[in-house]
Amino acid sequence: MSRALPKYNKRRVGIIGGAAAVVLSGAVIAGSALAGEGANNEDAAGNASPGTISCPSVEGSLPAVPASAQAEVDRNLALLDTQIQEANQRLIDTVGQGGANFVQNAILGPLEDKRIATLNRIETAIGRAAAKPEGLEALAPCQLNQGGAAGAGEEADAGAGAGAGAGEGAEDAGNAGAAGTITCPEVEGELPAIPASAQAEVDRNLALLDTQIQEANQRLIDTVGQGGPNFVQNAILGPLEDKRVAALNRIETAIGRAAAKPEGLEALAPCQLNQ
Prior knowledge:
The chain is mostly helical. It is built from 8 helices and 5 strands; from the N terminus they run βααβααβααβααβ. About 45% of the residues lie in helices and about 5% in strands. Keywords: Signal.
């Protein structure tokens, strides 16, 4: 079985004490940061601040980090900061886009999935040399702190659906015309023999993988005409891959409780658009 991608196991366990106590804010986005945006958009949405994304602090919730794990933990802590910065930049780049749930679906949701994967890697790195911390996933969800009349994309009630980005998609449509369909690698045929005790959990996650594809295909339809040339990759295919990684890790873990744990199922996570 392919080992093309690294493995990280998602553990859904209790919340670490004090996990939600400290919030790590992304870099503050000043109103002047939208000057270029406002120059191109005469409406109020173009001049409004999109706000900033803030996430729970991770470093203060970690146990003592073994010396052998320090470098890997530091890399992943830095990656968590980078993910917040990228999400804040995406807030700026997408001001005025999408419907009422755009920020949640296209920015906050994908950010949470990325943070879960990174937090799992931190748990695994520490667990190789000491007691593995549990429940860091509780630090994954982030929130939007809006400033002023922020969130033009959030408040555009009429923006949902195919007609939402009419002005957006007229000249720079990354999802224009026929929506196409999303296809993903088949998983069931790549699995080893499944222990009886794991069958129900594996079946649930296989069904979830199918549901995720159906939801992504529906989102393709709902967002025809929205976004720029990378909209489908950033807002649909990328988040779908993150969700699939999590589901595939759960399948590996379920089988591994009663038999040899399969490795490398994450290689089946990336999907593609067939137009």
